[in-house]
Structure of DUF6598 domain-containing protein:
Amino acid sequence: MAFRRRFTPSYRAFLRQGRRSTSFNGDFGLDDLFHEHIESAEEEDVDSDDDDDEMGYIEPLLYDEKMEALWVAEKAEMLKRAAEEKAREAERLERQAEEKERNAERLERCRKKHDAVIKSSIRRYDPKAKCLVWTRFPFEDFSSFDLDEESPVPPMQYTNKTYQTECSMNCSANILSVKVVSSDVGFPIHVYGSVIARDSMDNKCVYLFRCHRRDSQLIKSEDESLILTGPARGLLLIDFIFLETDLKIKGERGQDKLLSRGLLQIDGRILCIREDIKVRGVTCASRLSTVEVNYVVVKSAVEATIEIQVPHGKFYGEITAHTTSILHRIVLYDSKAGGVAMSDNSGAIQLWCRVIAVCLNEKLMLTVDTEASNGIQTIQFIPSLNGANQHVIYCGATKLCLKVTWLVITE
């Protein structure tokens, strides 16, 4: 394509004014030829500019008014959707901010409630220790956890369950006795209150001793144990069993004194791997006394729930339980302290403690000591993973029906 040079208006004026004759003094007509050439170039430039202006107003050959309207509508719809999406995003961020604020307020309320429980019930000043001490189980969220709620897990829950040839067994512990081994106010004292156990099954209250003020127990010396009325189910010993003491002395004219308030623990992480099986103890020195809790760890434990019925007659005597490895007797019933056991509508004796943990490889011994002519009788029960064993004995004219129901202690 040929290229035609264009001259600017100022340059054209310069050429007109600056024409000079050549050395030939126009003999050959060069000035006229040059002048005609310049004017022709100017005319072509003007024509070219006019053509360019006319081309700028030519419409596209493929223009479609309907397509243009559709495109405009689609663009408007896109803008509308973008605006709606932006509004939804702003609303979502607003809801998220409100939810975050509500969560922060809820957490603050929970924290205040938790701290209030810690301050009022769990960590208190002990004049005997002369410092703040833990008096109750502290490892829960107390904005929702009720410290005083009793464990809902009953005994004999899965006694009819069928197990395979191999079954996972856990450790347990039997609380043998709770004694006030020293008293700053001396003896005798009338004691009431509670001793609670908590295990990893649910961390809720399993009462070992619970006595109201009107039924306070007389303790004459440091050798006497509190009458244990629990546990109501087998205790699970995987990591810890926590023990809480809250005992008071019944005084005259309502002037009661706080005898013991403290927290003890049985560490199953160590005790469950030891080979020696023996009676162990933990002590709590607080307030006006020192309380000692004796216990024994039971490996491969099953829960034994004991029931004793008297179909007819009256029972005078004492009923105790122990295992083949630990001869320390757990008192289940004593008519000297609990009164005469008589047959009622169900015929069952209200035992003080009716749940004991037994090693699957040992035997449970129930001893019945009466004033009858046949004296002391000991009945052996062989543990199993489930089911029940029954035995009938006669104490003089009184018939006793003994039943032991077995259950594996699991989480």
Remarks:
- Residues 172-298 form a domain with the Immunoglobulin-like fold (CATH 2.60.40).
- The two ends are 96 Å apart (CA to CA).
- Confidence is low (pLDDT under 50) at residues 1-5, 19-28, 52-58.
- Helices lie at 9-17, 30-55, 65-122, 268-271, 335-338.
